[in-house]
Structures are given as structure tokens and as C-alpha cells.
Amino acid sequence: MRYAVIIVALVVLVGGLVAVKGTQIGSLIKMGKEMEKSGPPPETVATASSKEDEWESTLRAVGTIAPVKGVSLSNDAAGVVSAIRFDSGAVVKQGDVLVELDSNVERAQIASAEARRELAQLNAGRSRALVASDSIPKAQLDTDEALVKSSQSDLGALQAQIARKVVRAPFSGKLGIRAINVGQYLAPGTTISSLEAMESVYVDFALPQQNVGDVVVGTKIRVSLEGDAGAGLEGVVTAVDPALDAATRSLRVRASVGNQDDKLRPGMFANVSVVLPQQKHLVSVPSPAIVHASYGDSLFIVEDKKDASGTTVKGPDGKPSRIARQQFVRTGTRRGDFVAIVDGVKPGQEIVVGGAFKLRNGAGVVVNNEVVPESKLAPTPANH
Questions:
Q1: Domain of 93, in residue numbers
Q2: What does pLDDT average to over the chain?
Q3: Residue 156 pLDDT greater than 60, yes or no
């Protein structure tokens, strides 16, 4: 009897536990079906509106900086370096003395030539007085005056020889590294240093043949270095090659750029933007909105969720539910933090600019624009 009571109690207990677990499992199944019906929870994203812009039309190229005036300085006459009047990298003015070669022999010859000239001038003076009194023939006067001219020419030749042994700056600019030393013998044409005019420089670049009619002398350009956060230096096209390169079918162009800050150095590569006179109307979006993939670029447009009949679906708070619709686009040029959309987006559409990487087509979203990165056409990020 006692065992029967125990068995009945155990059966009742097990039955109660089974009933409780069955109820819990049923609730979980019901909840799972409701969640499956409602879909995954919405993702929080940041958005911005696509807008219609007017951008200047530009042509992009990579150019090489070349000097407006640049020479390798060398000596005209042979000789031993007696004095060096410049330091490597110094800024000099036109006519400044840079190097002096030894000219002691020529200076000694000048003293002798000056003495001969003075004697010739004295003899010519006496001859003039004697010719006036008919004491000597006029032929003697002619000979003495010829000696004056000859001695003067000899003196001028020696002075020119000394001047050839002094190397001066042919124009104002910045010197390179010194390549000679005091006491060194220099043969004619020995390189002393380089000299570059730095107030302005040339930038040489090439454009494809389809842009031949777009660039003329006087067209404005902007030049910037890789990694430069500034707006770049402005210049103007000064020459266009009349013929295209037969190998690359490209047009060679040269522009002049001011270089007052000594920012551009000959030999540098630089990014060149040729500013065309016509403006371009387009639709632009912040560049973080673009999702890049092997099958194409896309972005997500935030819209109200609609049911099969086209009625807007409302959420528990009574407001319209929002979804992200994936839209494939064709992108154009970039300008700062923005990218032009050639096809796929209209002005005024709400675009996901933050959190697009975690979305799928038709995913529910919640918009939170409290922290949205600012997009600029000419960003100037600070270094940290």
C-alpha cells in the first residue's frame, strides 16, 4: 500500500513537470514564430540626403615639376680656385660673385700693360705738340696714336681674362650642393653647382587625345602633392604641344605655377587638376555611403516599409517602419568627401552613410543621426 502511494505521487510529480515544460516550450515556439514573422531586429544607422550639386569640370593628370630657369654653373676659363663665395643651398641674387679663380699672373700683366699705355699716351701727346709746329712728320703722330690704341686693347683683353675667372650668378635663385673646393684646379666647363629660380616653376603633364580641344593657353590648373591636405597651388597653362605623342596618343602640356613658399621642387611628381570653364550638374552623396563589391557599387536608400497592398506598415510605436533598400549605382568623379552618382539615385533621397556594411536588402533600420561624420568638398583633416 505504501509503495502504491509513492508510485502515484511520483507519477503526479512527473506529470506536473511535463505539463510545466510543455507550457514553456509552447510559449517559446509561439514566440519564435512571432519573431520569425516580424523578422530580425532593426539595425541602427545614420543617414544623409542625396543632393543636386554643381561641380566644376576638371581633368586629372600626374605632372612633373620642372624649373622655369635652371642651369649647372661652370667656369669659362681654366684655373685654380682661390675663393668660394657661396654655401650649399644658399639663395643668391643676379650678379653675385660665387667663385674666384687665381688671377695673379693676369693682374701682374695688367700692371705692365697700364705702364705701356701711359707711356704711349705721353708719346702721343708730345707728338701732337710737335706736329702742330711742323717739327715731326704727321706719320709719327699716327704711329704713336696707334700704339695708344694697341696698349688700351691689350689692357682690355687682360681685364676680360680676369673677368672670365670670376663666376657670377646669371639670375636670382637657389643654389644646389657645392661640387668644388678651394685649391682645386678647374678645367673649362667643370660643374660648380646648380642654380634654380624658385619664384615659379613649370609643371609638365600629358592629357589623352580626346581632351585636345579642352585645354588652351590660359586655362587654369591646380597642383597638389600626394598627401597634401591643402587646396593646392594655382597656375595657368602656358604652352600646349602642337603634335601628339605618336606612342601614347597623348598631348603634352606645360603650365606655370607660383612657388613663393618653396613648396615645389624640380623633379617632384604632382597631381594636376585642369579646371575647365563649363560646370557639371550632378547628384552627390557622402563617400561612406558607397558599398564596394566585386559585382558592383551600391548604397542603401531608407524608405517606409509597405505590405503587399502598398500600405505603409507601422511599428509598435505607431510610426512607419523603415527599411533599407539596396540600390546599385554608377559612380563618377570624387570631390573631397563626396562622390558623384551618374545613375541610380535622385536628389533628396535618404541615404545610409553610417552602418551600411551590416545591412542587407530590405533590412529594418532605426535612424540615429546624433553622431554623423561631417562631409566636406574640401576637407582639411588635422594630424594627431
A1: 76-101+168-197
A2: 83
A3: yes
**Torsional class of 290: left (φ above 0), alpha (ψ -120 to 50), beta (otherwise):** beta
pLDDT average, residue stretch 253-274: 88
Instruction: Kindly indicate the confidence band of residue 334, based on its pLDDT and cuts at 50, 70 and 90.
Output: confident
Contact partners, residue 196, CB within 8 Å, separation at least 6 = 67, 69, 70, 173, 174, 176, 266
Is 50 among the domain residues?
yes
Q: What's the CATH code of the domain at 142?
A: 1.10.287
Q: What is the mean pLDDT of residues 183-197?
A: 91
Among 276, 279, 280, 278, which Cα is nearest to 216's? 276
How confident is the model at residue 384, as a pLDDT?
47
CATH number at residue 300: 2.40.420.20
Residue 187, phi then psi, degrees to nearest 5:
-75, 160
Concatenate the DSSP letters of all residues of 234-276 into one string: EEEEEEE-SS--TTT-EEEEEEEEE-TT----TT-EEEEEEEE
36-65 residues labelled b (16+ CB within 10 A) or e (exposed)? eeeeeebbebbbbebeebebeebbebebeb
Angle at 137 between CA 134 and CA 139, to 5 degrees: 145
Q: How far apart are CA 278 and CA 224, in angstroms?
A: 22
Q: Is 182 helix (H, G, I), strand (E, B) or coil?
A: coil
Note whether 213 and 263 are same-domain residues: yes
Q: Is residue 15 part of a domain?
A: no
Place of cell 613658399: 261
The CA distance from 173 to 259, in Å, is: 12
Is the CB of residue 61 less than 8 Å from the CB of residue 205? yes
Q: How is 278-294 classified by DSSP, letter by letter?
A: EEEEEEEEEGGG-B--T
Express the helix, strand and coil content of the chain in percent, nearest 5 each: 25, 40, 35
pLDDT on residue 206: 93
Q: Which has the closest alpha carbon to 356: 321, 322, 320, 326?
A: 326
Average pLDDT over residues 228-246: 84
Residue 75 amino acid letter: N
Return the closest-CA partner of residue 167 out of 104, 89, 266, 78. 78
**pLDDT tens across 337-374, in order?**
889 898 889 999 999 998 888 888 888 888 888 877 67
> Angle CA(101)–CA(105)–CA(108) in degrees, nearest 5?
125
CA distance 65 to 267: 5
